[in-house]
Amino acid sequence: MSIKELQDFNNHKFQKDLIDWYEENKRDLPWRRTSDPYKIWVSEIMLQQTKVDTVIPYFNRFIAQFPTPQALAQADEQTVLKEWEGLGYYSRAKNLHHAVREVVSSYDGRVPDVPEQIGALKGVGPYTKGAILSIAFNKPEPAVDGNVMRVFSRILQIEEDIALQKVKKQFEVYIRHIIPADNPSSFNQAVMELGALVCLPRTPQCMLCPVQKHCQAFSTGMEKELPIKSKAKKQKVVPYVVLLIKNANNDYAVEKRDDKGLLANMWQFPMVPINEIGMEHIENWMYGEYGLEIELVEKKSSLRHVFSHLIWQLDVFEATLINQRGVERLQFKSKEEMDRLPFSVSHLNVKKYIT
After folding, report:
1. Where do the structural domains in the chain lie, given as residue ranges?
2. Catalytic annotation present for 44
3. Which candidate, 72, 76, 78, 91, places its Cα nearest to that of 342?
């Protein structure tokens, strides 16, 4: 689709129909009760690949704990990760923390409203930049994510693979042409709301759509065929045995993950890579790796945790500590001490089986 073709699109009527519907039907969400760019920023980071209902209590707790950029900047990383615990995508929390510290040091705690400045902050990609600039500062900037591309692939009948970066860039061009200069905040939020409530992935509610008459896919009967998206690579399944190792004081062995890579700086119970060693060598592997002499007691559960690129298959076993030599990687913590540490979702589920 060219800009020339877009000129035939009835922008003004589309904008009005969409924004009128939004003002009448929008959900009452805590981040919609403010124009504070910091709070809107936090909400946008939390909302990426996470459902609204899940985010609401996390957002409220996080803002209560860190009400200003200065408050977040002054917190240590483990405290921030503990507040984020269970939400997943912990690198986003760390990037937000890093970026807010930069806002405090470089911009006196004020979130910048210049695209180049806000886009240079760690973890702020094109979508987040557009969302903050449009919602908080009312600047006509596109905020293009999967939801938005789904809506506009149908509205404009774009039959290209939205998984391709070049196609996403095209959507940014199209939306920059369509977005109203006088009310970009409501417009972008309206598009997001339409994607969340009406223009659904598999079952678009076209009979309820306020912009149905503007939708080219609906007029040609292609609304369920769009968007076109190539399939992601199949996730690799990796099996582990997770050990609940208890000492004589009823404390459990836990460790902090490395400061880089998957779930960096989060806490977990010891994980044994079964593909590499086999079930029969768990006790020997634990002695060689951690200096712990243990005895397996019983299997407690089997859990499955899905990441974007891999799946952990976790068999949870209780084990008894017989002896140990000094290895600093593992620490024995009481239940109360563990409650103050940030665990990933997968190990929060494991933690339910401690006795």
Report:
1. 3-220, 236-351
2. yes
3. 78
